[in-house]
């Protein structure tokens, strides 16, 4: 059964009526409902288009967090052949919030690394809702270094509300681990493509998303802190999350205009969760295109291009 967001209630009512009519027709085949169903479906489709054409930043946050939105392992399942997960940071242990490994993508070997939130209760607990501990970022560093050693491009998919803030995470120096992971991204001598597929919040996302090219799905969000976190700091209450989401410019459109990301990937009408396979395929097409654009560069050029890209962000608005 489809999960509707708060602002989708008018759509839910229309699609609910369609289902009721179809059930009625099953009980009594003599009842003709085709015309009425067609009208309701057309109305629901138009309403869906109208709503998603003018989403507010806070509504985009809700879409980015939709429980049925494709996660890292969904992309791996549909895009990557012979995926071999690689576990452990060789320092402390394994962290399932960040998953990484080698696989065949469109005919070439690629290292994939990304946050996995989990798709059901058991999976969410296993993957800690995509909130990584230090060992997750140290594993990412290890895998990126391994890819560089063998000249293998890296693709990272960011989707997290932030790194895990628990006591044990702080005790094992999560901030240091994120900083080193960010540094490893920036110093990598092979192409690195990063995609924000859902939430890209805090250093937990940035730690694996400093790519040569940073792509972002249309209804994803990317920010130094979650709207609720910003609201708690600025207004001493999480009630102002909507205002914070608008003020922080966290949408793909805002960030593309500011030069923080390189490309916005369109989503199907109604969000990625309505047409999961289409979203994943088109994201794969975009990744493949970006990799082709970098494949002829040597290691020094790759580093230089990436460095210039991130240094340019600080020059926005300066004469």
Low-confidence stretches: none
CATH level-3 fold name of the largest domain: 2-enoyl-CoA Hydratase, Chain A, domain 1
Quickly give the CATH architecture of the largest domain. Answer: Alpha-Beta Complex
Give the amount of beta strand, in percent: 15-25%
Radius of gyration: 21 Å
Q: CATH class of the largest domain, please?
A: Alpha Beta
The backbone outline, from C-alpha atoms, is: globular
- As for the number of domains, it is 2
Separation of the first and last Cα atoms: 54 Å
Number of DSSP-assigned strands: 8
Major sheet description: 8 strands, mixed
CATH superfamily of the largest domain: 2-enoyl-CoA Hydratase, Chain A, domain 1
Describe the secondary structure blueprint for this structure.
Layout: H1 9-27, H2 34-52, H3 57-64, H4 72-79, E1 81-85, E2 98-105, E3 108-115, H5 121-126, H6 134-149, E4 154-160, H7 167-171, H8 174-187, E5 192-201, H9 202-206, E6 213-217, E7 221-223, H10 227-234, H11 241-247, H12 252-258, E8 263-265, H13 276-294, H14 299-313
Parallel strand pairs: 3-4, 4-5, 5-6, 5-7, 6-8
Antiparallel strand pairs: 1-2, 2-3
């Amino acid at each position: 059964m489809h999960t509707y967001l708060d602002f989708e209630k008018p759509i839910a009512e229309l699609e609910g009526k369609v289902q009721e009519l179809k059930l009625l027709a099953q009980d009594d085949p003599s009842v003709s409902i085709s015309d009425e169903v067609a009208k309701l479906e057309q109305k629901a489709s138009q309403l869906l288009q109208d709503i998603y054409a003018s989403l507010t930043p806070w509504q985009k946050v809700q879409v980015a967090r939709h429980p049925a939105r494709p996660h890292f392992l969904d992309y791996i399942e549909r895009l990557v052949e012979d995926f071999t997960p690689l576990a452990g940071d060789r320092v402390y242990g394994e962290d399932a919030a960040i998953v990484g490994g080698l696989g065949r993508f469109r005919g070439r070997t690629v290292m994939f690394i990304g946050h996995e939130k989990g798709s059901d209760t058991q999976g969410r607990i296993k993957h800690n809702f995509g909130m990584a501990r230090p060992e997750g970022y140290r594993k990412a560093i290890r895998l990126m270094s391994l890819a560089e050693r063998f000249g293998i491009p890296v693709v990272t998919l960011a989707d997290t509300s932030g790194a895990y803030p628990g006591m044990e995470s702080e005790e094992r120096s999560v901030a240091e681990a994120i900083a080193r992971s960010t540094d490893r991204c920036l110093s990598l001598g092979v192409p690195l493509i990063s995609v924000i597929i859902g939430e890209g919040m805090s250093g937990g996302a940035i730690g694996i998303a400093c790519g040569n090219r940073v792509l972002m799905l249309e209804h994803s969000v990317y920010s130094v802190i979650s709207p609720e976190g910003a609201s708690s700091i600025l207004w001493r209450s999480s009630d102002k999350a909507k205002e914070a989401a608008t003020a922080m410019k966290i949408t793909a459109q805002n960030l593309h205009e500011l030069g923080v990301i390189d490309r916005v990937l369109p989503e199907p009408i109604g969000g990625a969760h309505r047409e999961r396979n289409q979203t994943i395929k088109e994201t794969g097409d975009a990744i493949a295109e970006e990799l082709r654009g970098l494949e002829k560069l040597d290691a020094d050029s790759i580093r230089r291009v990436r460095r210039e890209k991130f240094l340019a962000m600080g020059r926005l608005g300066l004469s």
